[in-house]
C-alpha cells in the first residue's frame, strides 16, 4: 500500500466540490477476480481530466501497471467503493461524507 499524500489530498480538495460526478474506467481485472485497476476522471470545461494518480496518492492506494488505482476485493461495485472512499476522505466530518461525490462508469 502506498503512503497517503497530503499534497494530492489538497489538490483534490481544491478542484472537487460536493455534487461533482467522477467517472471510472475499468483498466484491468486480475485472474482471480479479487483485484481491479480503475482509472478516475472528471469532465471540466469540456475536457477530460485524469485524476487517477492523485486519487491513489490521497487514499494511499497503489497505481498498477495498467495505470489504474488498485482496488482489492469482490462482490460489490468496486468503482463505487473507490469513489465513496475518496468522498469520505475529502469531506470527512460531514454527515453523509461518502455520498458527496457522484459516480458513473464509462
Question: What does this 3D model show about the protein?
Answer:
- The protein is of the alpha+beta class.
- The chain has one domain.
- It has three helices and five strands; from the N terminus they run H-E-E-E-H-E-H-E.
- Strands 1, 2, 3, 4 and 5 form a five-stranded mixed β-sheet that branches.
- Strand 2 and strand 3 form a beta hairpin.
- The longest helix is centred in the C-terminal third of the chain and has 13 residues, at 78-90.
What descriptive keywords fit this protein?
106 residues; alpha+beta; five-stranded mixed sheet; 3 helices; 29% strand
**What is the CA–CA distance across the termini?**
26 Å
Largest sheet: 5 strands, mixed
Into which percent range does the helicity of residues fall?
25-40%
Count of folded domains: 1
Question: Helices and strands, in N-to-C order?
Answer: HEEEHEHE
Mean pLDDT: 96
Number of helices: 3
CA gyration radius, whole angstroms: 13 Å
Strand content: 25-35%
Shape annotation: globular
Model regions low in confidence, pLDDT < 50 over at least 5 residues: none
Structural class of the secondary structure composition?
alpha+beta
Q: Could you tell me the number of beta strands?
A: 5
Topology:
Layout (H helix, E strand, L loop, with lengths): L5 H10 L5 E9 L5 E10 L2 E4 L1 H8 L9 E4 L5 H13 L11 E4 L1
Parallel strand pairs: 1-5
Antiparallel strand pairs: 1-2, 2-3, 2-4
Helix pairs in contact: 1-2
Amino acid at each position: 500500500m502506498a503512503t497517503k499524500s497530503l499534497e494530492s489530498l489538497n489538490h483534490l480538495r481544491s478542484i472537487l466540490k460536493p455534487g461533482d460526478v467522477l467517472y471510472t474506467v475499468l483498466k484491468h481485472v486480475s485472474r482471480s477476480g479479487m483485484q481491479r485497476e480503475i482509472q478516475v476522471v472528471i469532465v471540466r470545461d469540456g475536457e477530460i481530466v485524469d485524476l487517477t494518480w492523485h486519487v491513489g496518492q490521497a487514499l494511499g492506494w497503489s497505481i498498477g501497471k495498467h495505470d489504474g488505482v488498485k482496488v482489492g476485493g469482490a462482490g460489490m461495485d468496486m468503482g463505487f467503493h473507490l469513489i465513496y472512499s475518496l468522498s469520505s476522505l475529502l469531506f470527512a466530518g460531514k454527515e453523509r461524507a461518502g455520498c458527496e461525490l457522484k459516480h458513473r462508469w464509462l
